Model the fold of this input.
Amino acid sequence: MKIYKIALSLLVFASLFSCTKELDKTANEETPITSLTQLVVADNFTWQSGLTGQLNLSFNNPHNVSTEFEIINIIDEQGQIIKRNRILNGEVSFNIELPQNSTYYVQFPVTGEQFEITEIKDMVLDLGPTNSFKSSTAINEDIENCTTCDNPMENAGAEAPALNGGYSIKHQDDVPGWETNAVDHRIEIWTNGFQGVPAQEGNQFFELNANRVADLYQELCLNPGSSIVWSVWHRGRAGVDVAEVKIGGSVESAVTLEVMTDGTDAWGHYMGTYTVPEGQETTFFVFSSVSSAGSNSVGNFLDNFEIECDFDGDGIPDSEDDDPGNPDVAYVSYFPTSGKQIIAFEDLWPSLGDFDFNDLTLSNQITISKGETFDILFADFKVSIDAIGAGIHNGIGMMLYDEEGNTFPNEIIASVSGDVSLDPDNTNGLILSNDVYSSIEEYYQNNGVGPTNQNPDTLSFTVTFNNGVADFTPELYIFRSNDRSHEIHRSIFPGTAVADPTLFNTSDDNGNYQTANGIPWGIEIIMEGDYSSPIEYIEISEAYPQFLPWAQSGGTQNTNWYESPVDSKVFDINQ
Done:
């Protein structure tokens, strides 16, 4: 039990601290150390193991591949998608938490390219040409395909026939996939950059008004009763142009689903859904000119038309939908992004403990379900109580912060269910347990002392969110069961609204849940597999010989320190 070592630990630390307080940190890096009491770390060291932070992506796009509004993925080595986001204004960001001991990639489905994530930083992705149009086939055998052919849309970006520059007005027989009801059967195609107009994607695009006002259309191979998502880009030529998107069983009977109105400054993006009526064996997509800023033969540029299956009708194509059979849930992500989050505490704050970091060890995994706009609907939490090495009774709390770790300006929690309750004293706070010993089925200390439980108890609960929450950061902390105000947090988080301010800067605390040398009372590990806590009274640096070099380097060396324990000095929950 830690309580019997307090006086000795304090005397040792006080002596060492008084001798080393003024030491230059550079000198410390060159001096071999054998204990955390001798360690001095950089002020900005976070005591986090893993690839964590905000990954910002932009694109070098020499082939003019369509990126705007496209989905980009984070995938693991097996190709499993673990997080998605949508590109806006040529950029996209991910808040990610990944283990160091696995390989992960950024994947761009439009080109099929993958880019390995080696560190969390700003990345510029060099994009090659598109390899094919997005697949419209069903993503698994439980989801029915919406088409009767491999690709429902032919020549969607006007790339055929290929021109050598400028523009050309072609007979419809020379333009694959497309027809017109113009009496001269002519279709106009422009090339990228002609008269200063860029293609939205690729090298070419259509001008709807060729020699005269007419409709441009294509017959599609869609199954009756199926749902699809369509999208298209529109732009004015000489001013503001207006065109309609129509769908129906014939060109004449097609009904207007969208009116597109755009000027010359940029391409406008339009998308919608359509359910093919039962019995409608033939479906036509029709673009019809309403007006243009020039003559009848001028205006209404079109590019990058897409058709994709949408089995559940939620407006998200099956190729992008993580739950294609559920009309409510479109995207599923995880915290951490992969693996599990391990939080290990010392519980004698503001006094030093014995640095075995097994007073309470928790594993955290969260599955986050989002709607079509990427707002969170609900999240399923699983917090496992992996080690208890404390004689003191502690409770478990959680705060939900925004993606940058700041307090939300409003209440984001709509309701909770399962092994949790709302914290009455903290907005966006949760109480998982008021006493961890009352939350386990039998009294155990699975740290190698006392009876053990090979299947640690897990607290499972669901949080339903209010509208408009795109992401959150969960913070697990502990508090005294008999004194709610006595909280212990990791040093990158503050105390809550009920934390006792008189405890800060007392004993060994330097005011931020760290000692003056930067030693914390809580650490985080993002990892695959299970973490083995040190046996009681075994300092973590003794149980894990690579821990001190990792901390001394500021986390740049020995990043997988937790994979190399001394087996006799840790407790393996799987044994």
Remarks:
- Confidence is low (pLDDT under 50) at residues 1-29, 133-138.
